[in-house]
Design goal:
By secondary structure, the chain is of the alpha/beta class. 38% of the residues lie in helices and 16% in strands.
């Protein structure tokens, strides 16, 4: 059958993604991507280290990121994203900015990191008080709190899981339970950290229940990358993506729970 009349395939715009070697949620990233955009993923080299501050530093070294970006150049992405929360907050605000500069030099395209995208999303939402949910250990979670505080954002509550591996296997039920534990009255927004933690389908549920914006690592990364293309992420009933969903009642009183939270 002659299909020449179709004239395709349609032109595509590319987002390059550098992810840690253990990243397992490629399909989740794609769910935020409109049809005319393609994702091109590469990974950092394997290192035999569990999820920790040491691992965050290893997978975010400038040469490692630059090499990852260079592997994407041949397919000409218009923007490059580093999809790792801990790797992009471990060096603080200055460290995150330096990572973006290193990636931009390597690829001659705009660059964004997950933690930089978090700050961008909080600013877009006008959020100055944030609750945090992480799958991390205490030390990695504290580093995220310090990063957020350095940006002048107050942490109103925090809950963490203490995991060092297999984070992508955490079910939505546990993510939702941690979010409820972290939420406090007076919170502007709740952030679910780690690009290896599944969040896509739980975001609308939590926003409806907690009545505040709920954002996640993968969501903000794709949102910020697509903004640099002049286009929008897709996703039903997610406040960050749909401005019409931003007006709602404040978070109701929630019971203060101590277990697994700070």
């Amino acid at each position: 059958m002659d299909v020449s009349f179709l004239g395709g395939p349609r032109p595509q715009r590319g987002v390059g993604v550098v992810a840690p070697f253990d990243f397992a949620l490629d399909r989740e990233l794609w769910r935020w991507i409109p049809d005319e955009v393609s994702l091109h993923l590469t990974r950092t080299p394997y290192v035999p280290v569990e999820v920790s501050l040491d691992l965050a530093r290893l997978v975010s070294e400038h040469e490692t990121l630059s090499e990852g970006v260079r592997t994407l150049i041949a397919i000409a992405p218009e923007v490059v994203a580093y999809a790792c929360t801990s790797g992009s907050f471990v060096g603080g605000i200055a460290g995150e900015r330096a990572m973006c500069e290193a990636m931009t030099r390597a690829g001659a395209v705009p660059s964004v990191t997950t933690s930089g995208a978090l700050m961008e999303a909080l600013a877009d939402l006008g959020a100055r008080r944030v609750a945090l949910v992480t799958p991390y250990t205490v030390s990695v979670t504290r580093a995220l709190e310090e990063y957020v505080a350095e940006a002048g954002v107050r942490v109103t509550g925090c809950a963490f899981m203490g995991l060092t591996r297999h984070i992508w296997k955490v079910p939505y039920r546990e993510v939702a339970d941690m979010a409820r534990r972290a939420a406090r009255r007076g919170t502007d927004c709740l952030f679910i950290s780690c690009t290896n933690l599944p969040t896509y389908d739980v975001i609308p549920q939590l926003e409806a229940e907690l009545r505040i914006p709920v954002i996640s690592a993968n969501q903000v990364t794709m949102w910020a990358a697509l903004r640099r293309l002049g286009t929008r992420a897709v996703g039903p009933y997610q406040t960050l993506i749909d401005p019409a969903a931003r007006n709602g009642p404040a978070l109701p009183d929630v019971e203060q729970q101590q277990e697994g939270s700070t």
